[in-house]
Amino acid sequence: MKNVYYFDEGDYKNRRLLGGKGAGLCEMTHLKLPVPPGFVITTEVCKSYYAKKGSLPGGFMAQVKKGIKRIERDTGKGWNSRDDPLLVSVRSGAAISMPGMMDTILNLGLNDTTVDALSRSSGDPRFAWDSYRRFVQLFGKVVFGVDDSKFDKILDGAKKDAGVSSDAALAEDSLRGVVKKYKEACRKHTGRSFPSDPDEQLELAIRAVFKSWMGERAIVYREKYGITPDVADGTAVNVVSMVYGNMGDDSATGVVFTRNPGDGTPGLYGDYLINAQGEDVVAGTRTPEPVASLRKTMPKSYAELERTCRRLEKHFREPQDIEFTIEKGRFYLLQTRAAKMNAVAMIKTSIDMVKEGLIGRERALVRLDAGQLEQLLHRRIDTEAAGSHERLTTGIAASPGAATGLAVFDVKKAAEMGEAGTSVILVREETKPEDVPAFFAAAGILTSRGGKTSHAAVVARGMGKPCVVGASDMKIDYSSGSCSAAGTAIKDGDEITIDGSSGHVFLGRVPTIEPSVTGGLRTILEWAGKAKKLGVRANADTPEAAKLARSFGAQGIGLCRTERMFNAADRIGLFVEMIMAGSAAERKGILDKLGRLQRSDFAKILRVMEGYPVTIRLLDPPLHEFLPNPEELAGRLREMKPGPEERRARTVLDRARELAETNPMMGHRGVRVGITYPEIYEMQIRAVFEAAAGLAAKGVDARPQIMVPQVGSLSELGAVRDIYDRIRAEMEKKHSRKLKINFGTMIEVVRAALTAAELAGPAEFFSFGTNDLTQATFSFSREDAEGKFLPEYMEKGLLDTSPFQSIDEDGVGRLMKMGAADGRGRRPGLEVGICGEHGGDPSSVRFCHGMGLSYVSASPHRIPIATVAAAQATI
Ligand code: PEP
Ligand code: MG
Hints:
The chain folds into four domains: about 5-240, 2-Layer Sandwich (Dna Ligase, domain 1); about 250-340, D-amino Acid Aminotransferase, Chain A, domain 1 (2-Layer Sandwich); about 380-515, Phosphohistidine domain (Glucose Oxidase, domain 1), CATH 3.50.30; about 555-620 and about 660-810, Alpha-Beta Barrel (TIM Barrel), CATH 3.20.20. The protein is about 45% helix and about 20% strand. The chain is built from 35 helices and 33 strands. Strands 14-24-23-16-17-18-19-15 form an eight-stranded mixed beta sheet. β16, α16 (about 410-420) and β17 form a beta-alpha-beta unit. The longest helix is centred in the last third of the chain and has 25 residues, at about 585-610. The relative contact order is 0.07. The structure holds phosphoenolpyruvate and magnesium ion. Phosphoenolpyruvate binds next to β27 and α31.
């Protein structure tokens, strides 16, 4: 089998086989761009490496050697040559890019002989020895697992001995000493001498890259980003002839985006370093220069860079993230890939590229990651309030959004505290790929070193986490857990606020403000609105939430949970009275008062949603949810003095105990409450009719519909339908007008899905409550499963994602399809929607579109996601 593809042989569309980086290198080679010669080892080899427990396919290394021969031919250099040695980089690259998650080795092929040859051929012994020490360090770390700190210590010692402060100031002699000590450190760690045969080095390096696919940080990354084996199931390995950005002041290396990945502004964005190798830029160990200054320092190369970027964008029809190296004035491309951008930048570039004629509207929509749009709805710093807060420092704004949290300097501690629910800001000099688990747990990231393309910046941007980098006046002292900048100091655990949009870092908590729909998002939502077939409604229970939903483009309310209204401060007392009422007559009196309040609540929401349907759901939770917790109340009672208050508390406690249930989710809730306390549902239904009649009289086009929760049988639904019919007749008579208010049911009990044909008799619409339906289908508690055993299910590969986030298509989805089809069989044209949390999840929205639902309903902040996902489903 062909395991190795030379760059001009690879089918550059086949990312699955060649990985993203490999496919990009092949494609650029086809485009005749200046890519150093090299080859790709396929992801199939990685798969087979794992299937065969670490052995490589027969004949594989022979293919690799043939590849090396071809590089020798193309570069005119020789493998293990004593004259002009060929060195290569060995880099990972899976089908889906996982920046910094796997390993890379540079300058492979160096040994005590070739280093001298390189000294002579380059005419620069210092360069040769600097390359050698970098190689030994990377190889030692990646292949042998030697801790970085060992190498750092040796390098620091050498700098101290030489009396210099930067790596670049170390002379050849010192570097020779460093290499010797590095090799010694490797020998101590492994018990074997450092390999000098380039063939052996190469095989070990390839194996190490394969191993890194299953390394902890790669696994964590795949889990968090939902990179499942069906999209990427191994890494390719790219073996590329080295070009050197560290060959003096006419050499450089850099990373640029063709457009700003933080806000989408056209034009090159990124950094470069003169006389350096790629790792220096990405690792953030030296603070690089913005790419704009390359125009002055190397105008010819800058022009070539600009030209190449334009060409790549035009070709890929997507902003690119590229790595380049300039070797003695000669320009090379080492990588190109679709730029990872935040949501603001994705939106702006979508619109700009349409304007520039680079792409059409469909592509502009499809390229968006719908889930990412939630970032746009991130909180911002309240700039006015920020004025009165003391500023600790200002760094480079690397990933927008504001975050407040406790400053934590230790990576492990930050991960632990974050996972335990504390809001933390990870504060470091620089970050490394192994720190990524702490990124997920932190609310934001702050570093004192590095530029816009440093590791911290790239990773944070991908996650949409606020991040400030390169706050260089900040001095961190890890040993004492403190940090100071311009005379202000903080300790580990002090609260700070970072603003990833301006780079400012404040002491304490700075107020933040809600975001709003910006011009760009509005345009995208307009395009998506035209393209989509599914309706998008909101789950909203207050006029404010309804307004917000309208501003995001909601076409109605798919779920108004009326119980939330009873929890408001001015009602809860009344509601408790109602529950405590000794007789139906007493209860009726209180319900009248509650009815008036509900009526005005409904009227306000209906007004905001004028012209759009508003689905009002009758009371759902069990009554005891409105009473104090019996344990707590009993505790309080023990401290109370006898008297009227104490007597009242005692009766409440008795009632709370009477209503308590062992299994409340399956208990006396939803329609069951409506059956046993019909006066409650009566009150609510009447309030809806009164509100609608009142608005109709004022000429407002109010369109409420009434929905019953937890229905499992025709008889239950029929009982409520009888109440509805009676009140409707009464109301139409009272107001002397026809009141069109549809009556429907939730489908969230398994039996409802199974008997949907019958339910479609009294029900004029259905709405899937996929939260409860998922709970009931799996018998997983929706309250506990995600915090208890589901993470382990996912770790062990028993589930890809939580069924409470994305619809389980095979189980819950099957019930939905059956329910919708049976319902529509009985009542053609039946409106069928979904109002569980899944309504705001892109893959569930796609599923709902596919099964022909009428609409999805999601919380207001997820309306943009649902709208774009619904449009994408049609493309
Ligand atoms: C549901 O169960 O999916 C639903 C929308 O209702 P609730 O979340 O209020 O139980
Ligand atoms: Mg429910």
